[in-house]
Amino acid sequence: MNRREFAALATVAAAGSLVRRSALSATPATPASTRVQALAFDAFPIFDPRPVFTLAEELFPGKGAELSLAWCTRQFEYTWLRTVAADYKDFWHVTEDALVFAAKSLRLDLDSERRNQLMNAYLKLKPWPDVSEALKSLKASGLRMAFLSNFTTRMLEAGIKNSGLEGIFEHILSTDSVKQFKPAPRAYQMAVDAFGIKRDAIAFVAFAGWDAAGAKRFGYQTFWMNRQKSQMEELGATPDRTGESMKDLLEFVK
Q1: For burial by CB atoms within 10 Å, which of 31, 120, 160, 205 has the most?
Q2: Model pTM?
Q3: Exactly one of 42, 176, 211, 240 is catalytic; which is it?
Q4: Does the annotation mark 42 as catalytic?
């Protein structure tokens, strides 16, 4: 792993650990008892975001990691603030607003060309190395699958095309449809409505600890894909299982 790749991975981990605040009330997790019939995935257990942060370092040498961390942190804070304030913008525009803020806060010259390059990197995401074969195995086992993500539909469809995952997901559920971001219960409800099954028969696969807590609080069986080995959030809701890879997910659904 070279310096840029290390910085990108460190940024993902740090951004995840900084996301600590949520409106969730404290509810103890209960053991999973219902057979999993369907999986709902956040985007980042599937799509590897590190190339975005590597690009930030290429465009702003020596400042890329700091920019990426500020960008990611504000990105998710804006989703929560806009949900609470009922002042919705979709995730693409929230992401751009967060990027502009982060660059200004660091006094970086984010011209239109660099801004477009960084934003369009989100339309070029590809899967983590362990994803493709695991998803094919899950599909072959008869499990139904969907995305349930803050990403816009355009962002999700671009990632699916880049990754060669057409035909894997039964539903592509963007929180843009309900104008509320996770962890709002209305956002998680989309998978229940789409699959037409009870919520405890759905397993949600989260990338961030706060999202795992939100899904568990909602009533999903929850697997936290903790690729960054982050600390568990103190939100009163513990995922049913935590793992670092798709292999761990396969063992969970078995």
Answers
A1: 205
A2: 0.86
A3: 42
A4: yes
